[in-house]
Amino acid sequence: MRKFHAALLIGAAGLGLHASVGAAPVEIDLVPIVKVEAPEKPRAINHVLIISEDGLRADAVATLHLKWHDLMRKRGAYSDHALTIRDASTLPAHASMLSGVEPKTHGLTWNTWRPREGYIKSPTIFSHAQDAGLTTAFFTGKSKLRHIVPPGTVGMYERPGYYCKKVAEQAAEYLMAARPALAFVHFSDPDELGHSKGWMSSAQKNAITNSDRCLGIIYEALEKSGLIDDTLIIVSADHGGHNRVHSGAKRIDREIPWIACGPGVREDYVMDDPPSTLDTAATALYALGLKIPAEIVGRPRTDIFIDATPILLR
Ligand SMILES: [Zn+2]
Fold first, then answer.
1. Which of 1, 58, 104, 313 is 20 to 30 A from 88 via CA?
2. Can you tell me whether residue 82 is helix, strand or coil?
3. Residue 275 has pLDDT above 80, yes or no
4. Is residue 37 part of a domain?
């Protein structure tokens, strides 16, 4: 499976995707010979980071001119029409995003923290990564997401605070220091203000701008640490919303942003075929070079890569 990386990276090399990071000093050769370039350091994907902004509608990202989201769209592949599952609520939808299966399979059909109900019934991308010996981390703003993390399935689980600033700051610090192979970061802000003031109200738009800043905290940390060079970042959401609710009955409740950027990923590329949130799990495993178990319903989105052999789908 690791062979895939080599194939993927041929396309990524020399694209100058991250020309601003660690630019080499200019060398002057005194001997006029044809210089054989040293083989470029492989630009494999060694890390996958999924950032989910709770309740962030796809059209908000498309229209609000958010600095960091816009930057990632420019540097990545994206869709404004990705869809979450029919049950567009936080716990079931995140469980599907991170397991690649529907609620009837993962079993998390409620939307509160119920410690006595136990944990997700399906393996998650974290348990798969751990089985393969990879390191994992999970930073959440809402404690109910703990249901997705059975004991021992994630190396680092933390709930730094409810709002995204604390979550982003702690996650950024941890990512730079520990450099986990697979990480998930959750921001609560858009959902909170959607419920209290209404979806796309000016208060929620402010919360979304705040969430954008939190994304920036993480993005800058990846740049500073050099992780940006070998990390696939996927930014998405669990659901949208309208008025002060999200039931999933309306499409606006289910439409979520989906942005991917990283080495070998197409730039400023609009995906023709909008992803499902179930694809997020499959794409994460694929990018890490892990086997995608047959139970996973989502598809690895190989179309985001410049040069990846599409996987034949079941
Ligand atoms: Zn909500």
1. 313
2. strand
3. yes
4. no
